Structure formats: structure tokens, C-alpha cells
TrEMBL record:
It comes from Paenibacillus alginolyticus. This is CPBP family intramembrane metalloprotease. The chain crosses the membrane at residues 12-31, 51-80, 101-124, 144-169, 181-202, 214-233, 240-259. Residues 138-250 form the CAAX prenyl protease 2/Lysostaphin resistance protein A-like domain. GO terms for molecular function: metallopeptidase activity. Pfam families: Rce1-like. Keywords: Hydrolase, Membrane, Metalloprotease, Protease, Transmembrane, Transmembrane helix. The keyword Nucleotide-binding does not apply. Coiled coil: none annotated. It comes from the Bacteria.
Length: 261
């Protein structure tokens, strides 16, 4: 049964505010990773640095607002939700996390990020073009990315895109009261692949070109963990996907670089 829009207001507001925070905290990392392209864009815009930052944060905030509204408007119709967050905000009752699923979420991110790292080193790197300018990113800047990845990307990709895909796919069923598991699986995979494709502009900026190896690398590196996050959202709720994504980003941008650099 659809949840009335007023029941989602606090959720939408909280996710939007957290999205704005994520947009602020990811900026130092973006500056380090794409300093050349970002500087050129700023020069072409002819706007003060502070205005550029404000516009970028505003863009992230509006995107999170729209994605939250769309996702939450459709989630209940397809059996998806943020049960812990909703119970806490609307009822003042904290129902708690499942210890078993927290362990699954954390271990999945640990294993998934390690697999991504191994694939990148031993499978993709021999076929990748040289990076014109190797970016130097401080570990503290990498740590700040977990708020953007865990909150903004999960709201955009899982809560909005994946939910929308499940809803669209379910429209083609004769019975709309039951959605088979394979439709969730398809939506999870499609959302993860689209998320990987969304990284291609940043990949092109970093390497100066796009090759078949770079495209496959973007799809695999982002898609593997994206499928896992989608599974968590489907089975337990977006809160688990957010936490798992945060843990994954912490391993990718802090733990593994400090060990293997």
C-alpha cells in the first residue's frame, strides 16, 4: 500500500540535508582527482571559487532532493524501504540493526573492495593508458568521500534509480501485487551498470581518453559492489546499503591506499 507523501517528508528532508553535507565533504577529493579539468572549468566559468563550490553543493542537494522524493514515492509500491530510518523519524522508535546483516554488509564491502583492487592491479592495469598527471590525494580527503558515496550515490542509484526500474518492470506484469525476485535482480544489475557508465566522464578526465579497457574497468569496478549494495537494499533496507557503501569507500580510499601505496 502506498505511503502518503506526508509520511515521507522527514525522510526526504533528512536525506537532502545529508546529501548537501556529502556534496561539501567530497569537494576536496574532487579537487585533487581532477584538478586540471576542474581548474579549466572554473576559469571558463569566470566565477569566484566560493560561488563555484556553492553551485556544486546546490546541484548535489537538488539532485538528492528529487531522487529522495521519486524513490520514496515508489518504494512502498514495490516493497522497498528504509525501515529503521522511517521508524526512528516518524515514530521516535529505533528498531535496531540486525547483527547478522551488519556483518554481511561489512564483510561484503571488505571482500568486494579487495577483489576490485586485485582485478585492477592484475587484470586491468596492463591494458590501461598512462595517466598524464598522477593525482596526489591525502588519506583524509579519501575518508571524506564516504559521506558522498554512502548517502548521495545510494539515494540516486538505489533509492531512486533501482526503485524506479523495479516499478517500471512491474508495470508489465499481469499481477501487480506480487513482484518476482528476478525483476529485482534485473533492476539491481541495470542500476549498477548505469552507475558504472556514469563514471566514464571522470575516467576520461583522469586518463585523457576512453579505451575499451577503461570502459570495462569502470563497469566492473563500480558494478560489482553496486550489485551487492542493491541486494542489501532489496533484502534489508537502504540503511544497510548506505553503511556498506561507506565501509567500502573507507577501504578503497583509506585502508588499501595506506597499505599498498
Amino acid at each position: 500500500m502506498p505511503i502518503p507523501i506526508h509520511k515521507n517528508r522527514r525522510l526526504i528532508l533528512s536525506l537532502t540535508l545529508l546529501g548537501a553535507f556529502g556534496g561539501i565533504t567530497v569537494f576536496p577529493y574532487q579537487m585533487s582527482m581532477m584538478s586540471g579539468g576542474l581548474s579549466q572549468t572554473m576559469d571558463q566559468a569566470g566565477l569566484p571559487f566560493g560561488v563555484i563550490i556553492a553551485l556544486i553543493v546546490l546541484q548535489v542537494t537538488v539532485m538528492t532532493l528529487i531522487a529522495s522524493w521519486v524513490g520514496l514515492s515508489l518504494a512502498a509500491k514495490v516493497g522497498l524501504d528504509l525501515p529503521i530510518w522511517r521508524s526512528w523519524l516518524n515514530e521516535g522508535r529505533f528498531i535496531g540493526f540486525s547483527k547478522k546483516w551488519l556483518v554481511i554488509s561489512f564483510l561484503g564491502s571488505f571482500v568486494g573492495t579487495l577483489l576490485v583492487l586485485v582485478l585492477d592491479i592484475y587484470l586491468f592495469q596492463p591494458f590501461l593508458p598512462a595517466i598524464p598527471v598522477t593525482p596526489s590525494v591525502s588519506l583524509w580527503k579519501g575518508a571524506l568521500t564516504l559521506f558522498y558515496g554512502g548517502i548521495v550515490e545510494e539515494v540516486l542509484v538505489r533509492l531512486c534509480l533501482m526503485t524506479l526500474l523495479v516499478w517500471v518492470f512491474s508495470r508489465f506484469l499481469r499481477s501487480r501485487t506480487y513482484i518476482p525476485a528476478y525483476l529485482y535482480g534485473i533492476a539491481i544489475i541495470v542500476a549498477a551498470l548505469l552507475f558504472g557508465l556514469g563514471h566514464l566522464p571522470a575516467t576520461q578526465t583522469l586518463f585523457g581518453e576512453l579505451t575499451p579497457a577503461l570502459i570495462v574497468r569502470a563497469l566492473v569496478s563500480n558494478g560489482l559492489l553496486g550489485i551487492f549494495f542493491g541486494y542489501l537494499y532489496w533484502k534489508k533496507g537502504l540503511e544497510y546499503a548506505i553503511l556498506s557503501h561507506m565501509v567500502g569507500d573507507f577501504f578503497l580510499h583509506v585502508v588499501w591506499p595506506s597499505i599498498f601505496s
